[in-house]
Amino acid sequence: GIELDVPDDSGQTPLFIAATNSYVDIAKFLFRKGADLNHENDHGMTPLHATVQGGHVGVARFFL
């Protein structure tokens, strides 16, 4: 299978990127396939933390 939690140069995983860009359907898909919600980027932020901080309400509601 494919690795879902491979980070980019700043430590952001595909789930992190989808969540912080309000790509709700993609974030749901990645999460349901086992992407790590607790993976921290280079600044110590998780997808949930960054989503709440950025005001991405739709994704944050799904995570909670």
UniProtKB/TrEMBL annotation:
Keywords attached to this entry: ANK repeat, Repeat
Any Pfam family matching the protein: Ank_2
ANK-type repeats, residues: 10-42, 43-64
Domain of life: Eukaryota
Record protein name field: Ankyrin
Species the sequence originates in: Glonium stellatum
